[in-house]
Amino acid sequence: MNFDWFRKALTLIVVFIQQLGPVQPSIAGVQLVETLLDAYPKYPVRPVKNETTPVMVKHRMTPIQLIDMDEKNQVITLKGWLGQQWKDEYLQWNPNMFDGITTLQIPISEIWQPDTVLYGSVNVNFQRHFDTDAIISFDGMVQALQPMVLKSTCTIDATLFPFDEQRCDFKFASWSYHSKLIDYQKSNESNTDRFIENGEWKVLEMPIKRNSEVYVCCPDDTFTDVTYTIHLQRRSMFYVVNIILPSFLACILVSVGFFLPSDSGERVSLCVISILSQFVFLTVISDYMPPTAEVVPYIQRYFFITIGLAVMSAFVTACTLNMHFKGPVCPEPSRFLKVLAYRYLSSFACTRVRIRKYRRKIHRQRVDKFRSEEVPLGSYGNGTKIKKQSSHDLADEQKGPCNNEMEYTQGAFYDKDPETQDRRLREWREISRIFDRSYFVLYTLLQVILIGSYLAFIAMKGKYSHEEEDHETHPDAGE
Length: 479
Fold this sequence. Notes:
- By secondary structure, the chain is of the alpha+beta class.
- 42% of the residues lie in helices and 21% in strands.
- It has helices spanning 2-20, 27-38, 237-257, 267-286, 298-324, 335-349, 355-374, 391-399, 418-473, and strands at 55-70, 75-87, 103-107, 116-118, 133-137, 141-153, 165-174, 182-186, 201-205, 208-213, 223-234, 406-409, 412-415.
- A hairpin with a 4-residue loop joins β1 (55-70) and β2.
């Protein structure tokens, strides 16, 4: 029952509204519009009765949303509200004569409006006027509110990418009237309170400045303009998580590869994969960079260094693998390599030299063999004489038991004794292992220092450059 009562009441209301008919326009308003437009100049000219009187135009801009920032083409697309206010001497009336009407809305195409243009616009169509309704007061003040999408040039400085801040200028001025005819003033109502937050960029401020310039076309006249500088800060978290951090982890793969055994055969593959991944990240970063040769962004320098370290790691890996796989016949490691590996690099890499224990074992076996052959047990009691060895025999014994069996291979002498070859092969592998551990420590330290110094340098450089730009923008701020 309650719903039936509500349905009947709604039906009665609709019928009552239909009986009223369409809303009749205000007779005084129609008369006012006809009176103003009939007396208005047929051709749009400056709305002043004295030709020497300049039209004062108060301009304001309210940015609403950042649609796109094309760093590669250095173009910014912004949605905003533009507002202009000026006095039209032909649009004045006495409110007492028109039922007390003080404001009126008429199409702006019916009256004069300043030819305000965005000087840095890159739109295909050169748009000068906008079809909106103008709000007119009885004293002749005209207010035009025009929503539009601004597409302008913006000089991109990608040196500190992705921790950069950009300043884009939106310069509004008359295209054909100099300051003696149209004088632009900035409005204090311009603000960024209605700006919609962007996922990549954050608006820090929007300083406004009124300028007077002289152009080549008209050296005797000055043109005034109102310039809005939108200060944008990039939200770098996306690039840190998706580019810098994966790049750092890909570099860590190289250091992990030095822990793999040399027999696994995957160490060179890890270096190649790391190098290719760095090139992929570098290509992704290049898509955001404007094609300029003036500066090289620091993040690109960072990738160049990481690629160089990865290439150096591949070279070191090739050298250590060459030491590890010397083959069944190998030369003696040089004294320089032994001293470098056993004395210095082992301490740097915090690792022990494993070959010394093996060498002491071989030495004991040789001593036991020598004693069993030259001084048999019980020889002293039977009066057996101990064989005397000459200095030449002692020298041969010190060099090795099989030094008499030598052959010339590939321009060097190699010992054919299996025991000696096994000892030399173990020494080469131990030197290779120490080189691997040492380069692992060095590479890890370089990576940590590189990423830490890069972030610290970017932070300091950005702070210094921003303070310098703020001082140039606001020279009287510190006084």
